[in-house]
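Quick one, probably user error.
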């Protein structure tokens, strides 16, 4: 995923920075506890396409940095 794109993308709901999870091909909004999918290197930033992340996933994200940096 292009680093410049990661720097400008924010959550479409709350405008918070996102966490890029390369292995899962997702962008995570910690504030809304949503995971937006990345399909064919294109972020799908639609609320109805996002999945809710569990509390366990949320806790695991606590040490990860959000973009923009």
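Nope, works fine. Designed sequence:
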């Amino acid at each position: 995923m292009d680093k410049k794109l990661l720097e400008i993308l924010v959550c479409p709901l709350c405008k918070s920075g996102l966490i890029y999870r390369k292995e899962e091909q997702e962008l995570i909004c910690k504030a809304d506890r949503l995971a937006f999918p990345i399909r064919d290197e294109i972020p799908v930033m639609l609320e109805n396409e996002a999945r809710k992340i569990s509390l366990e996933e949320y806790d695991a994200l606590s040490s990860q940095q959000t973009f923009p940096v």
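The beta strands are 19-21, 26-29, 34-39, 42-43, 51-52.
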